[in-house]
């Protein structure tokens, strides 16, 4: 039994060595840290960016996710993307593809979409991400299609660590602390 347990721990640690791709919302198109997950909204439109981190592929052919705002008074003015981006969903339900696969940057990131927002109420708002409706993933969650092979679907964790959905950014609040989805501490906690 101890040998089996040791093999399971080794397998989990080896799996954790490979970065799980993450998807989240940032208020910068070039900096994707914790400080970029909050925006203090005023009376002007502003941009949010749906970003893929730790991409395991060289290009993205399509992606899926949904955006949920904790205040219905957040207005999505537009959603746009590069490389012939087409969204077959809605401004908050992205089932989007690229006519030409979107290249992944040298730091394994890709800005998938720019969402222009307007919010003037001044209250704290949580921005959550989940799976699209309908979803290509089971269980439903955000994900991408490999640009080199569209049949290769890759589920993404959120930048906040949750695999199926949750808060990824805020307005007029403290932002979200990114977490490592698979860590040695998490593996050890399974056996405590």
Layout of strands and helices, then pairs:
Blueprint: H1 2-17, E1 22-26, E2 38-39, E3 46-53, E4 59-69, E5 75-80, E6 86-87, E7 93-103, E8 110-118, E9 125-130, E10 143-146, E11 153-155, E12 157-158, E13 166-171, H2 184-189
Parallel strand pairs: 1-12, 2-13
Antiparallel strand pairs: 1-3, 3-8, 4-7, 4-9, 4-10, 5-8, 6-7, 9-13, 10-11
> What is the H/E string?
HEEEEEEEEEEEEEH
| Uncertain ranges | 1-17, 180-192
What is the tally of helical segments? 2
Indicate the proportion of strand residues.
35-45%
**Strand element count:** 13
Helix/strand-derived category reads mainly beta
Helicity level, as a percent range? 10-25%
Report the major sheet: 8 strands, mixed
The global form is globular
Alpha-carbon distance between the termini?
16 Å
Average pLDDT reading: 86
- What radius of gyration results from the CA coordinates? 17 Å
Sum this structure up briefly.
With 192 residues, the chain is mainly beta. 11% of the residues lie in helices and 39% in strands. The protein contains two helices and 13 strands, in the order H-E-E-E-E-E-E-E-E-E-E-E-E-E-H.
Task: Give your account of this protein's structure.
By secondary structure, this protein is mainly beta. It contains two helices and 13 strands. It has helices at 2-17, 184-189; strands at 22-26, 38-39, 46-53, 59-69, 75-80, 86-87, 93-103, 110-118, 125-130, 143-146, 153-155, 157-158, 166-171. The strands form two sheets. Strands 2, 4, 6, 7, 9, 10, 11 and 13 form an eight-stranded mixed beta sheet that branches. A five-stranded mixed beta sheet has the order 5-8-3-1-12, with no helix packed on it. β6 and β7 (93-103) form a beta hairpin. The longest helix has 16 residues, at 2-17. The protein is globular, with a radius of gyration of 17 Å. The two termini are 16 Å apart. Residues 1-17 and 180-192 have low confidence and may be disordered.
């Amino acid at each position: 039994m101890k040998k089996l347990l040791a093999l399971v721990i080794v397998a989990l640690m080896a799996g954790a060595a490979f970065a799980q791709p993450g998807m989240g919302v940032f208020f910068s198109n070039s900096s994707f840290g914790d400080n970029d997950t909050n925006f203090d909204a005023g009376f002007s439109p502003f941009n949010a960016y749906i970003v893929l981190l730790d991409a395991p592929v060289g290009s993205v052919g399509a992606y899926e996710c949904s955006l949920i705002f904790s205040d219905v008074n957040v207005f999505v003015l537009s959603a746009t993307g590069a490389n012939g981006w087409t969204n077959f969903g809605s401004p908050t339900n992205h089932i989007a593809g690229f006519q030409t696969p979107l290249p992944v940057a040298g730091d394994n990131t890709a800005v998938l979409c720019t969402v222009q927002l307007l919010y003037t109420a001044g209250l704290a708002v949580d921005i959550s991400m989940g799976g699209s409706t309908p979803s290509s993933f089971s269980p439903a969650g955000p994900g991408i299609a490999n640009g080199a092979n569209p049949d290769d679907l890759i589920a993404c964790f959120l930048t906040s660590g949750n695999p199926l959905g949750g808060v990824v950014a805020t307005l007029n609040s403290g932002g979200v602390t990114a977490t490592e989805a698979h860590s040695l501490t998490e593996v050890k906690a399974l056996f405590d």
